[in-house]
Amino acid sequence: MDKKNPEIDQQAPVITYYLEMNNRGQLRSKAQPPGLEVTEAELKEFRFNRYLYQLVGEPWQWVDKLTLSDQAWQEYAERDSLRTWVAYHRGSIAGYYELERQDDGSVQIAYFGLAPRFVGKGFGGFLLTHALESAWSWGDTDRVWVHTCTLDHPGALSNYQARGMQVFRTERE
Predict the structure, then answer these.
(1) Which residue from 6, 12, 91, 111 has the highest number of Cβ atoms inside 10 Å of its Cβ?
(2) How do residues 58-100 score in pLDDT, each as one tens digit?
(3) pLDDT tens digits for 19-47?
(4) For residue 128, is it within any domain?
(5) Total domain count for the chain?
(6) CA distances from 45 to 42, 77, 120, 166 (A)
(7) pTM here?
(8) Is residue 144 included in any domain, yes or no?
(9) Which of the 8 DSSP states describes residue 50?
(10) What is the torsion angle, in degrees rounded to the nearest 10, for the CA atoms of residue 166, residue 170, residue 151 and residue 33?
């Protein structure tokens, strides 16, 4: 993803991991924490997606989409091939994810993360479980995939692997 973490040595090479799950049976679920609810944003509103991107991405310096115009955001977020879910805890946004349907029958977890005040509370495993279940439930999904890198939260890769995703490619910048 488009991230830069200031706590990581910027001189170190960035490693990007591409992970996949090729059948629903590989999913190792994590239980739903008390008080955490996940809801699909069925009525698409690009401004909401932009807000979620900023809220969740700020600590990781997600910057690629910050310069997009309203029209570009609308074209991105309001497509039929993109769906957004939001996690709420006690009425506050705890995190979100976006799923993007690909032409080859796969679904990409395009964005995934927790709002800063909810990191470290045990919500990530269930939110990822929810994302994977939603991806597999979306039509005739053949594969679910995501990429993460060493600039993401230090627990990102292990969360993906703990849920049953497997690395299929690694790139070093």
Answers:
(1) 111
(2) 998 788 899 999 999 999 999 999 999 999 999 999 999 999 9
(3) 999 999 999 999 999 999 999 999 999 99
(4) yes
(5) 1
(6) 9, 7, 29, 33
(7) 0.92
(8) yes
(9) H
(10) 0
